[in-house]
Amino acid sequence: xxxxxxxxxxxxxxxxxxxxxxxxxxxxxxxxxxxxxxxxxxxxxxxxxxxxxxxxxxxxxxxxxxxxxxxxxxxxxxxxxxxxxxxxxxxxxxxxxxxxxxxxxxxxxxxxxxxxxxxxxxxxxxxxxxxxxxxxxxxxxxxxxxxxxxxxxxxxxxxxxxxxxxxxxxxxxxxxxxxxxxxxxxxxxxxxxxxxxxxxxxxxxxxxxxxxxxxxxxxxxxxxxxxxxxxxxxxxxxxxxxxxxxxxxxxxxxxxxxxxxxxxxxxxxxxxxxxxxxxxxxxxxxxxxxxxxxxxxxxxxxxxxxxxxxxxxxxxxxxxxxxxxxxxxxxxxxxxxxxxxxxxxxxxxxxxxxxxxxxxxxxxxxxxxxxxxxxxxxx
Length: 379
Description:
Order of helices and strands: EHHHEEHEHEEHEHEEEHEHHEH
CATH architecture: 2-Layer Sandwich
Shape: globular
Helix content: 25-40%
Strand content: 5-15%
Number of domains: 1
Number of helices: 11
């Protein structure tokens, strides 16, 4: 999902990800204190109790799973730049479910409602439909970024369902392959596989289609660290590793990452999203749209089963055999997607709270002082 150097729980067996953080880099904040502060912050911005609770849930789960780029600091920063402060997100907005002639497919107008509240509801509804029809999809127009897509598909996977989501990002920050001007969002893809009975945790594949997410740039800036080469360019279109000089990002994997990034824009364009280069901006043209789009897809596992597995295995037993074969044959340094996040979750739970760096805690406490509430006590 992200480079292992972002996590204190990574294995060093895989040489692609050197120098992981250690536990000494982090301090523990109680989940309750974190949630109270973040809910207070959302409510101060005008969000309803249920919206604040779901925004906080996603932020806390991101932190719990070691996702340093999409926890509460990023969520509130995003809202400040593109959300409730400028009308990009509307506290208290109601979702409109549009008429559809397809029973397993729904189209929603989110009316700029908080993205996390929309996404959790979409996953719940898609699961209801998949229980009835085996498969379900929900397309969401007029949305505001939902942040960590992996959190939604992971929840679906933990409930026993295959899930996928993509979204268009808040603004265009990525240069297309062969180009020089950012015309694409960082546009994440997220898959969740209910494999926990086979390997102990859900397989989750979740990544932005830029080499790094802009949230990672912000995190490195906060920590005073550099970007990896080939991740970003400055205002002159020249490569840079200084997070303070980043003007735009590059797609991962060259033309392949560009294709995956483009896919989100295609989905968004078909759902109802408009031009990527005006998305997230305040414009005077009343006939234009600057909102994001979401897509959700959920499958009941029985809808995938051919019921004819080798050696009399059942579906999960067959999946376990496949995964064991992939990780066998001397592939001791290999791992499954979601392993790092699972390790982070265990470490967070064992610590009895959420793990943050001192720089992050200082930023949380600056927020607490602005709100006039108690600062977070680290241990």
